[in-house]
Amino acid sequence: MTALVTTSGLRGGYGPRSDAISEIDIHVDAGQIVAVLGPNGGGKTSLFRALLGELPRRSGAVEIEGRVAYVPQTERARLDFPVSALDVAAMGTYADAPWYRRLPLASRRRAHESLELVGLEGEAGTLFGELSGGQRQRVLIARALAREARVLLLDEPLGGLDRASASRVGRVLADLKETGRAILVATHDINDAQEADRVLCINRRQIAYGPPSVLDAETLERTYGGEMITLPGGGKAVVVQHHHH
Amino acid sequence: MLDALTDPFTGEIGQRALAEVALLGVVCGPLGVWLVLYRQSYAAESLAHAALPGLVIASLAGLPLLVGVGGGLAVAAVAIALAGRERRVGSDTAIAVVVTTLFGLGVLLALRPEVPARLGEILFGNPLSVSTGDLVATGALALGAIGALAALHRPLALGGFDQQAARSLGVSPQGAELALLALLAAATLVAVGALGNLLVVAMLLAPGAAALRFARGLGPSLVLAAALAVGAGLAGLYVSYYLELAAGASIALAAVATFAVAALISPLLARA
Fold first, then answer.
1. Contact assignment for B168 to A54 by CB distance below 8 Å
2. Which of A42, A127, A192, B89 lies at a CB distance of 3.0 to 4.6 Å from A203, suitable for a disulfide?
3. Do B161 and A78 touch (CB under 8 A)?
4. How far is CA A199 from CA A52, A54, B4, B196, B203, in A?
5. Nearest C-alpha of chain A: how many angstroms from B38?
6. Predicted TM-score (pTM) of this structure
7. Nearest to B55 by CA among B110, B117, B137
8. Chain B contact for A236, CB < 8 A?
9. Is the ipTM of this complex over 0.90?
């Protein structure tokens, strides 16, 4: 197996004193999906920023094989922007040429192919804001594919999607895994995490990393603290999400 | 009929005015699309108004108005940056305080008895008074701004559409926004002579906002905005000529009319 992402003792943050993340030791092979589980403000997005080289690193090491692309939550993108699905996918190829030069034709072709890979070739001309939530998520994944990224960082890709859309996005991720990409998925959903190859529990520092079997009650308690409740009866753990308005 | 169309432009004054508003339209229309998309309409209004003291001082000192606007914009930019550094103030409040102060200062200066009669043109503009030098400056702006907008198209699109992911795709959203504000300052600098300190905002924002109501896609929006802005300039000159109204104000009203019509018609088109 080829390791695409390796971190050792990774520590970093924006503020002068507090670390956004620390003690992160992970090893992600090609063809693996890693669920990154943690509370709001627990460092999931900061970890992604660190892997993108955007978070000031204080110590530790990061090694990434190939290109890395970030796929944000769809509501972070502007739905009123007059850009089509193809325009958005093509944004993944912008680094192919300096900003003042025309993009090569091959880049446009790659954007088309990326839309095909996520099953949206028929929506190439549709405005991004007119697509469904699940389709928008797939367009953003297509943008990452157009960048020819081997490592994908997805920020809560299934959040707010209905069951059918979430299932469709899940199938796209499973297909991408088969192509040998490494996929890190930030999520709140413990059930989704159980489906991943590896799970990283994080609450400003690494709590646990390993197969889904690491998700025992104690690990979840340490990861979520007061944000987790246990339902009476089945003893099922549920995370109470805090929404920011 | 043909005479009625050509009459306003038979003389040199009319021809120069036509060339001036056409060049400004080609710049202000597309620039307005980006300003609306980047939610920088307030910045556009603020920059124009903050330049007033510089304009009046240039008018009093007999300097070219371009020098006055440039100086006024530079002072405003520095003052806003300094005020915005105070955390408890915030950028919106800093802009409001600085712009209101500078505008008030400009009005105080403008009320001095020695200010030449041309001050009305500073506030409300007069494309009929543009000189050959003004036309050359506007032409240079048009060439530079269209070139810059074409070159910056990708960074502007990505930086505006998805600020969070832009950097990972090789684009600095802050850099794109700064470039846009620099273009806004350059356009204001040149357009204020023909359209006036108070009315230039209409040409900068209304055609762009109107085009975004109609067009699907960035490219069509930019082209349509340029066409609407040039059309508004032309319509304003006709209105000014035949109804004997101030040319700057007529153009500003025509520009705003494009948005009013777009706001009325676009919902009907969407339903059809």
1. yes
2. A42
3. yes
4. 20, 23, 76, 62, 55
5. 10
6. 0.85
7. B110
8. no
9. no
